[in-house]
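[Automated response] Your request has been received and processed.

Submitted sequence:
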Amino acid sequence: DGGGMAALRGGDATAAGLRLGYVCGVLPTARLAAFERVLFRATRGNMFMRSATIDQLVRDPKTEELQHKAVFLIFFSGQQSFARMAKIADAFGAHRYNYPAKYSKRAALLSQALTRLDELSHVIDHVVARKEALLSSLAARHGAWRTHLARQKGLYNALNLWNYDLTRKVLIAEAWCPASMIEETQEALRRATSRSGAHVPSILNVLETDEAPPTYFRVNKVTSAFQEIIDTYGVPRYGEINPAAFTVITFPFLFGVMFGDVGHGSMVTAFALYLCVNETKMLALSARLRDDIITMAVRGRYMLLLMGIFSIYCGVLYNDVFGLMADFFGTSWTETPPRHGGPRELKAHGMVYPFGIDPGWHRSANELSFGNSYKMKLSIVLGVAQMLLGLGISLVNALAARNALDVWCDFVPQAIFMLSIFGYLVFCIFYKWSIDWVAEERVAPSLITLLISFFMSPGEVPAEARLYAGQERVQVLLLLLAFVAVPWMLLAKPLLLRRRHLARAGYKNVACRPTARDDPAAARGLLRSTRDHDTDEDSVSVASSNNGKAYAEEFDFSEIMVHQVIHSIEYVLGCVSNTASYLRLWALSLAHKQLSMVFWEMVMLPPLQSCRAGGSSWRCAVPLFFGFAVWVVLTTAIICCMEMLSAFLHALRL
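Generated structure:
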């Protein structure tokens, strides 16, 4: 209708021969009732009005808003009534249409409107089709454009790091490059020069600098995932040992300790082997789907493979296959009547199970207590060994940097503190394992009681914690060493640094300078000694962050002291908390085994028992089929997915 807020446009004032006038138009639906009442009162009822609501929303030409409107038709008599209605319609914001009185004209007007609507509909359909075709072609090229823009952005970001030489009109860049890749870099520059068609080749010069180079580690598809884990915690400084080399073994091994099971490890290994064999297809799939979980699994496929292999290895050590005790080599214990509670005697004196835990423990009454004790002690041994490995790496880094201060003020007191407490605990574990307490007819001492008495009563050892003769003197000596190591670690390095700084920056005796008139040779010697003194490394602590630009290093004793206090407290508390944190190896391993046993006993064991009881084959096959299906789903979903993810996160923490 062209809008509804314009002024009223009337049709013919009178109908031929009838002396009646009419008005038609469009009005907002909300004003229709009020408009009809006002017209009735203004004409005193001398009018006839019909209205109908328009189903579709109509856009107002003034406000550009979609509104609900209604069409109306009014019949009246007299010119004065027409003028009065025109003013009322203007006041209500109606929009009037010229509606001819003759039918032929109305039919022609309707045909013209329909033709116009049909033309507009064809135009709109054609525009929509053209727009869809254009958007489809743009969408097909969107990926290529995005890649091109990303490359151009990266190129200009790199060029912005260059320096422009106005005199020679060249770009100069300073960058670090591995020494083993100098020839490859020169070859890449030659290829770029030939491809670009440049007349002047790029020149590569190796500069001598005193800056500390950035860290670069060459990785491959096997070690890249482990290197990312290390970089998440911190990047080693240039010249330091890369912990990722050790993480390739320690990380999957710690995972295997918690997830140790031959059956479950075989499932993880099979999945990882599938990803490794089809790595090209899997990499393309992860790039297309852009799913974080799939991408992590594909990129860490070799890590998953090692995790599965170490899970199988630890499962053989535990003798666990899907939570059940296996008997690969035959137990070393003889079976006794059930009233005695399981195996008691060895088949032969000194006989041991060839590899792993003897399956005879599975049929013993103290299986759970033995497994808990063994895995708890094993967790402490592995934790202390890994922490000592970290201390050894710090020693090698300090020796490589020729930093005697770090060796004597950091490594030595840290090693003394660690070995005096937790190293002694590991020694007691192995000492307890090495003695046959049953043969000696003695009760095995409690290591928990030993550790408590070690701190609470250093000079006294309870009878239930005694391992060897002279234990009191040894524990007192170790406790004193641990207490001495803490202030050594806390104060030695800051005080020695302060002493070194004062020796370098302190005043020195100034002798009378001979003049050139008195002794020219002495004067020249004084100048030489002055220059030598200025370049002596003991005269000032020199550091450099630019090529050849040296400056005096600032020394703030309070800042160094605060840093050392934080470092010492963190180490002492970390030794205790980390050792306790390694007990999660025991806890996760126990939870994994017990959960596997619950699934087997609750899902698979009832159908097997019904089959053993006898009956028709269908009564055995149907429950066994459904029980096995449920067991496979639970094992895959809960143990091989959720439990594996939990063990992975805990191994990541360790």
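Summary generated for your ticket: Residues 1-18, 507-518, 520-552 have pLDDT under 50 and may be disordered. The longest strand covers residues 21-28.
If you did not submit this request, please reply to this message.
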